[in-house]
Amino acid sequence: MRESRAFTLTELLVVIAIIALLMSILMPTLQRVRKQARAVVCQSNLKQWGTIWALYCDDNHGMFPKRGARTGRWIDVLFDYYYKDEKFRVCPMATKIAFPQFPPGAETTTEIRGDAFTSWGKVGQNNGRPAGTYGSYGVNGWVYQAAEDPLYGKPAKFFWNTPNVQGAAQIPLFLDCWFWCGWPDNTDTPPRTENPADWWTGDDNAMNRFCINRHQQAINGVYLDYHVGRIWLKALWRQRWSQRFDVNYPQPNWATQAPWMASFKEDR
Hints:
Layout: H1 9-59, E1 66-67, H2 74-77, H3 79-82, E2 96-97, H4 109-112, E3 118-121, E4 134-135, E5 137-140, E6 145-146, E7 172-176, E8 181-182, E9 218-223, E10 228-232, H5 254-257
Parallel strand pairs: 1-6, 2-3, 5-8
Antiparallel strand pairs: 3-4, 5-7, 7-9, 9-10
């Protein structure tokens, strides 16, 4: 009878070492595939948001909400369209919520704001907004109808007002964002680092609200024609955010203004 031969300790260690080597080779690939899968889910979420915006505009005579300094926020006027389904409110890369304690909810911008991997919210009860609202997407504020002139210092004539405009496929509507809105201008500077403590929190220089490294040097967004696409961070300065946005304006000096983005892809 032939006796079976057991593995020696050395042979077992060699096998373990080979498995460990293979895992070290495969893990980056698996992580990349996982991130890509989450990006696909994010784009699916934004397609649903595109449908919501289309439904709202259809119900509002083809117009976007009329935005005042304290009225017309999308989180208010679209509430009945989105409140029943929480899953598509957030990108799967940003499932953590900045202020999850509700009630009472957050009251200040600092408490509410998210980051690349954190959703903004939850909003408190005493600020005239839907209590408990949260999400990881924000609107391009220039799409609104301006109820005041200027609105937050921005002339009403540069707002889009409606999705039925020429070049709608180049105009961002709703995107990955660390806040619920932003009014980018071509003169805006990028965040100097990826640290939220270095981000500008005011309504000026608002491009930084969308310039977050959520999807491997990019974010996702839905445009005024309701198509969804991937937008490289450097290409944010080549989108038609408003009627005054100059897409040919010199881009930021990445090496000095945002070294963390210097090596990023530059596709338009």
